[in-house]
Amino acid sequence: MEQDLIRERYDLSMARIRDFLTEETVPEIYRDYFRNIAELIIQCGDVLKARENGSLDKMTLESGRTLNHKLYVDILPENYETSYANPSYAVKIFGEEYGKLLSYLCAEIRGDIVYAFEGRVLDLVIGNEALIEIYNLFEGEILPAAKEIKDILYWSASDYCDVTLTYRVREGVDPTLDFAKKIIMESDLSDLSYLYRFGAYISPEEEKTAAFLNSLPEEEIRKMADTYTDGYIRGFEVMGRDLSKKKTVSVRYPIGFERMVRQAVKNFEAAGLSVIFCRSAVGSINRNPAGNGGYASSSPNRQYDYDHRYDSAVYMDKAFRDRKIGVLKTAYEQYKEEAAAYAGPAVIETFGEPGFEPVNKSEAWAFTEKQQNLYLEYRNLSMPVVNEYIPGDETSFTIIAFPVPAIGEHFPEIFKETIRINTLDYELYRDMQQKIIDVLDTAEHVEVIGKGENRTNMQVRLAALSDPEKQTKFENCVADVNIPLGEVFTSPKLAGTNGILNVGTVYIGDIQYRNLMMEFKDGRVVSAVCDNFAENGEIDKEAGHRLIVQGIMNGHETLPLGEFAIGTNTTAYAMAEKFGILDRLPILIVEKMGPHFAVGDTCYSWSEDSPMYNPDGKEMIARDNEISILRKEDVSRAYFGVHTDITIPYQELERISAVHMDGTKTDLILDGRFVLAGLDELNKPLKLK
Description:
Layout (H helix, E strand, L loop, with lengths): L1 H18 L8 H26 L7 H12 L4 H4 L6 H8 L1 H14 L2 H7 L2 H18 L7 H14 L1 H13 L5 H8 L17 H12 L2 H22 L8 E5 L5 H13 L3 E3 L25 H6 L10 H17 L1 H5 L1 E10 L17 H21 L8 E6 L7 H12 L3 H15 L4 E6 L6 E5 L9 E2 L2 E3 L9 E4 L2 E16 L2 E11 L2 E6 L4 E2 L2 E2 L1 H11 L9 E7 L2 H10 L7 H4 L4 E6 L18 E2 L22 E5 L5 E7 L5 E6 L2 E2 L5 H4 L6
Parallel strand pairs: 1-2, 1-3, 3-4, 7-17
Antiparallel strand pairs: 5-6, 5-19, 6-10, 8-9, 9-15, 10-11, 11-12, 13-14, 15-16, 16-18, 19-20, 20-21
Helix pairs in contact: 1-8, 2-7, 5-6, 6-9, 8-9, 10-16, 13-14, 16-18, 19-22
């Protein structure tokens, strides 16, 4: 009965929206806007019909391309300057108050594409009814106040939070939502038309990637999938966690890798795990300004994504924050059995996309200081809720990365090299990394000094050992949760950790940061700038600072240093140098190619009390810092929900030295080379002059 009522509301709303195309009841300046949105909604209605009558599954490659282009053409870079989804254009046409609100609505309605492909009729109704309410306002004799429009958008988001947020929780833990899984497991992957059934934007990159994977021999695909799934399972073993208690794993991957993912699903199922495929968040209520987890394709327009990353500013206030946290608790209670069975994510990342230089637009929505604080408060309140139903000390994860064709003409060779890097001899690295740890265990702090134009000068204070025979300060990380292998890491003591961290260029998320500079005092960030923005030849330091706060620090003005690590994967570095792709690699690989520093939580957040042992049997005791330990008094003060790695590549490194209590130093790396005895193997790939 409920579904019948939803369908009736949908049919009525669609009939009303079709009238937008012919009637002239709103002022002329707004007609094109409403007709433009109506056309998209009608196209999505056609998709829903095709889904329901089965014709969507019969699309040819050409018809899939045509439909996909039609649905996404409005926000492609060549059309975006005159798209109502572009806040700058909307403000130019309608003025600031109307323009920002109508651009937000346009972006929200674009979620209909996904909802139609997945058959989520109620989500379509929610957008349709909000649009009709706003259209009705413009039919009046007097134009509406901007507050009237904003109120409709606010109450639509708030009233239906129990629908949109609850579904988001469910799709993260419920394997019966198998929209993507059916495409992956049941399609003829040699016929690339399957790509267009996801409803995501499909660029030539996805087609090229899928075609390339189709060209690989079966044993190569199996090797890729085995490395990925074995790493996930080994992570539980290394952490001493019981995987047998779990029933599900979430696979997050880039569309185009279905052949590998299909084999991974088989591997996981053989290990007793059902696979969940949760799409990257669509609506503003579920998006995270710092990035979204889930399966996804390449973006049709990264500037569009950037412009709308803070769209929740339309409705973010204390009442909404409280409403959202209440719904989150109710949703997890509703799906508590599924949440308890969830083992954690297995992630596939890609690298090689061209750099993105965002444009900061004053017309785009942005949080006020009060809203930023409310957002951070929500993050702090939500983490204990999630941890109650999905305990952090019972789950694990794995991450692996592969190149995409956009990396250039050497893509096939780079892909082959990446597979080799992902499958290096972990026993060899384990033993060499132990030699580094043995020295670091005798140190009070570590000095990291940059070379040439790199101004890095960091002193990282280390935890003290009460029983050196049984304890260690660093974890010996080989290929399990983080693939490829190659790092030793710790949670620094904050007091006494000081200095400047500087990197020439580094990719974090979709953004390449240039001349990134962060200063730390007692382990906290006190300043952060980069050279990404310039005007009239002058670097705009404030714009760079805001980019770092948003993209690296997830809205926090300051964060602690949660991790210090030394990467040992010189083979990966040699590949990057050989193909000239150092500035195109993801942090997942780059962090293994030199020292790296992570701002935010430690690597042990929510599981500090679970013992962690290295292969030599010693307990890694540096699992807390002065902030995470506050969980024992007030958990809301202990975590930030952020952990962002920043790496200094070998060529920007003068030295890393272990500094002992008496002031003597033991150099670990000098001029980019490992200098400890027994580490010659690590220097072979470097070939430094």
